[in-house]
Every structure is written in C-alpha cells, then in structure tokens.
Amino acid sequence: MHGDRVVCISHAEDADGLICAAYLVKLREATPILVTYDEFKGALTDLKPSVEELYICDLCVREELMKEISKISGFAKVSIVDHHPTARALLEELKEFGVHLIYSPRDCASALLYDHYEVELGREGARLAAYAAISDQFEEGPIASRLLSMFDRHIIQHEALILTHALFRVTSNDFRERVVEELGNYTLPHRISGLVEAAVSHLEHMASLLEEIKGKAVRLRRLAYFDASGEPSTGAVANLILDALDVDVGV
C-alpha cells in the first residue's frame, strides 16, 4: 500500500523512466515507484486515498487500466507524462477523468517533463533529458534536438550510453532506486558507483552473444533465427542477429 502524499509511478527498465522519477523526487518530493509493465496495474491498485498527487511516467496506458485510473482520479490529481503511441479516444477519455496529460509521440517522456518544468530544473536538468533522448533514440525530437544543441554531443552520448548499458545489466530495485537518487543530485552517470562496471559487463555479454550467434544462428535466405532462451530482451538479440549475419529479419 502506498500512502505517501505525492507518488510517481515510472518505468523501471530504462533511463527515460528513471530520469522522470528523479525529476519528480526533486520537484515534488515524490515517492518513486519503479515498475515493469507487468507490475504497472498492481502499483495502481495499491494506491490509497491518502495520495494527493500521482504522476505516471514513461508508461503506455492501456484500456484495461482505465478503471483504476478513473478511481484514483476521484481522490488524487493525476498527471501522465508519456510518448508511446496511444489511441486518441483513450487520451480523450483520460481528459474526461480530469487527468493532466503531458503527451507527445515526438519526444521522450523526460524531455516532455523537462520542457514542462524547465525553469525549476535548470540547465543540469536539461542534461538528464538529453541522456534520456539518446537512450530512447529520440534525438530528433523538437525538444530533444534543442536540448542536445546545448551540450557537448560526445560527452552526452557517452554518459547516456553508460547509463543505458548499465540498466540493461543490473535490474534490481535497489540499484534502480540508487540511480534515481544520484541522477536527482545531477551526478554524472560515470561517477555513479558501479555504473561503468555494469555497462562494460553488459557490453561484454553482448559481444559474447554476437560471437555465439555467428556460429549457432540458423539462416534461411534473408531471415535468421537464434535460440535466445534466458535473454531478457529478445529485441536486442534480434538486432544482434542483423548485425552478425547481414539479414533482413532476425528472430
């Protein structure tokens, strides 16, 4: 049960979600609840009327969650910050509940949230949104492109990718919560204890997997497949198949 006055439910698995959480801890002293999509509904269900404000960040709201959000909007101010493609009818329904939408499919959630609180977050806050834009591959977004032009591109890229690879490798709640705290203090990712080591470990794992794919993947003309049992991201493996074998489709 979550009884804190201000709560942020944010995507746990990537830099965009963690940076949104870091912003709201800084701005609103929010209690961060970091969730996977499998945990999203449960986190909503657990909220109690003692919550006065709820922020949902970097999580695509689905039809099956509307009942819970409607209930919460009866006792709390609800804001949703997101970029995932969402049906217009569902967005309109959320507005009818009184939900405050900070939404665009053109920028990552962190960039959208930064743009909304630019004065309060300042230049160092912009740096975090730039990390998220690179990590989520939204560099060309209208907000992100402006933010990226403010900084040394190479440094931002290096810091963003250290953060990205580390979060792929270490998935414990304790680690993610510590990263949120450090990012909220505007600590550079490479200075967060354990992040560089985790990022290098992930890259080494990917390199080993790439070598294994070259020897074990089955190729059928322009398609190839590989048994990726135990890998957390099948999408990442599919990309490695394309990298290793120069095919059009990897599964």
Descriptive overview:
55% of the residues lie in helices and 14% in strands. The chain has two domains: 187 residues, inorganic pyrophosphatase (n-terminal core); 53 residues, no CATH class. With 251 residues, the chain is of the alpha/beta class. The strands form two sheets. It has a five-stranded parallel beta sheet, with helices on both faces. A three-stranded mixed beta sheet has the order 6-7-8.
What's the topology here?
Layout (H helix, E strand, L loop, with lengths): L5 E6 L3 H14 L2 E5 L1 H10 L6 E5 L8 H8 L3 E6 L5 H9 L3 E4 L5 H8 L1 H18 L6 H7 L4 H17 L3 H12 L10 H22 L1 E3 L2 E3 L8 H12 L3 E2 L1
Parallel strand pairs: 1-2, 1-3, 3-4, 4-5, 7-8
Antiparallel strand pairs: 6-7
What labels describe this entry?
55% helix; 3-stranded mixed sheet; alpha/beta; globular; 11 helices; single chain; 251 residues
Summarize the structure.
The protein has 251 residues and is of the alpha/beta class. It is built from 11 helices and 8 strands. Helices cover 55% and strands 14% of the residues.
Query: Which series of helices and strands comes N to C?
Result: EHEHEHEHEHHHHHHEEHE
Mean pLDDT: 93
Radius of gyration: 19 Å
Can you name the CATH architecture of the largest domain? Alpha-Beta Complex
CATH class category name of the largest domain:
Alpha Beta
Judged by helices, strands and strand pairing, the structural class is alpha/beta
CATH topology of the largest domain: inorganic pyrophosphatase (n-terminal core)
Strand order of the largest sheet: 2-1-3-4-5
Indicate the percent of residues in helices: 40-55%
Shape: globular
Largest sheet: 5 strands, parallel
Count of individual domains? 2
Structure summary, number of beta strands: 8
Low-confidence stretches: none
Strand content: 5-15%
